[in-house]
Amino acid sequence: MLDVAEAQRPVIVGAAQVIQRSEDWSDPAEVLGPIELMTQAVRDAAADAGAPGLLNKADWIAVVGGFWSYQDPGRLVAAAIDAPGARTALAAISGSAPQDLVGIAAERVARGEIDVAVVVGGEAGAARKKLRALDVERAWNTDAGAGTPESIGAFEPEMIEEMRVLGVAATAYALLDDSLRIHTGTSMDDHRNEISELWERFSQVAARNPYAWDRTPRTAAEIREATPDNRMISFPYTKAHVANNTVDMSSAVIITSVATAEAAGIAEDRFVYPHVSTSSHETWQVVHRNLLHETPALAAAGGAAMEYAGVTPETVDHVDLYACFPAIVRMSAAALGFDLTRELTVTGGLGFAGAPVSNSSGQAIAAMVPLLRNGGWGFVHANGGNATKHGFGVYSAEPPNKPFARIEAQPSDLRSRPGVGPDWDGGGDVEAATVVFDRDRGTSRRWRARAGPLRRRRPDRDRDDDGARRASRPAAGGNADRLTGRIRPACSVRSHRRGRPPAPCPGGRAFRGCGSRGS
Fold it and tell me: Residues 467, 449: contact at Cβ < 8 Å?
């Protein structure tokens, strides 16, 4: 006979992934859209639990946000699985969302607020792109869905504002990676080798993963070097280094209480227990971080998860560190104490395994479940924004010796630094740099994180049509990027900056952009 605490203990009873490859269909009417892919994952998760009848008892269906226009996708999934009484939730587009939703579901199950929870995410970006190229209308469900779901996990407005300025996520992550490179005193060539060798190991995992979008094993050299098929995105990141969201994939997990699972006749060998879920966030804007590559909030939340579960990096058997770009893997491994040479993914990461927009950690949790049924500990890191929001989960098939906990592990002091106004044009140290390449225009722009007076910082960008040459050539000594160093203050004499100095410059040409010969 279970006591009350044991009976309400949350447990994952079913997990599934679905992948729809472009070569798997020829008739557009056969193509599954996001709702169909998510519905299939939920059904497969119930089959994995050995309890298909569990679906119409679902009373909470939470959906990870995607690049689609559904108003209440959970309601559409509920209708498809005949769960009319289910309440629904929709998370903001953030890589941290799947782990956050699993944590919320487990907490509510433990409190007795819900009996059967479904966490699901999915996207059909590849099919959408192919159908558009064929000029064929989508046949899948495009109904927005009636109702207003519970809204979970929105970003702060100032973060969205900065993301609009920086553009593609590769820009921010390349700056973070360059900051880490400079901090460790690594030459540009060695850095490019290190991140490419790391990604080669991720590619090897993807090659073994039947649900990975790209299962072609890639060597470090193939990943590192820019070619027509592997163009440079944001130096040093080529296309092979960056996340791939153009996929047709979905995943789902079903979470119940132990008592509900036993009543449904689910075998105990299907059980995987969430022990803890933690969350935190860095400064909402990258420009305000103390050191670009430092992640105090990541360290706090990851450390809190391991401490509560009683595990260490050495005792965790299966790890999935969020892997949209090499920077976040290197930063999280350093912050948490994981050896970069061990396997740090169960899927292959977002570049090779692919990700349905925000659902990479959803795929990872679903992939973790069958591994843990054979024993061991699982550790998942979910990341959203520009290394901004973090979620961690610890899982095992062994019943916890303490209640499930959802912990907000926010540090009391992020040691944030102020920014500077847009009109500031003074000197400063360049802490990190990248060159962003525009495929369509054939141009590039140089981005720099510049530290000015009183530790204030701002991002700069300028036209850099010779960016490829600049970005691939190290400075003398090979330990510093040519794009980093000291920036002189701009000359305040307008005519000098036009190169027509009528009078000596008080700075003696010490000012940037001055055409004067000095006084």
Answer: no
